[in-house]
Amino acid sequence: MPDGEQKHRSRHHRKFLEPQTGAMLLEDDARRLRRNLSSQGVPDAAIEKHLSVLGNPAALEGALAWYRANVGLVADLGAISVPTLYVWGDADATVGPTAAHGTKDFVNAAYAMEVLPGVGHFVMDQAPARATELLLAHLKRHPV
Predict the structure, then answer these.
(1) Residue 1 has pLDDT above 50, yes or no
(2) Which domain, by its residues, includes 62?
(3) What's the structural domain count of the chain?
């Protein structure tokens, strides 16, 4: 059964497909992009770092191209077959609990999910120390 809540959470992806979105996100000193990141709990200093990379039209168009390239992609890529760690913030406005917890269904290897209370979509901006700690422990448990 399709997750209607997740479809609603992902509605911004449709906007990313429109050719004028990059310019719109950057207009007025990236007002909309700043607002969107801020509303997800991204600290101001992290927003400035993001904009130092994505704050020009070519870079932002490159980032949006990832979404555009996935339009209509229908492929059975099979299950993930490498040890997987999914770090999810339970305040994520983009990925809901059904989608987050359902991720394990696509992994045929060691799988761990860590839920960070009060953290949103941008885990590395909101809880970098905890996310790094979890990643390093995962890599130690599953060396190459």
Answers:
(1) no
(2) 4-69
(3) 2
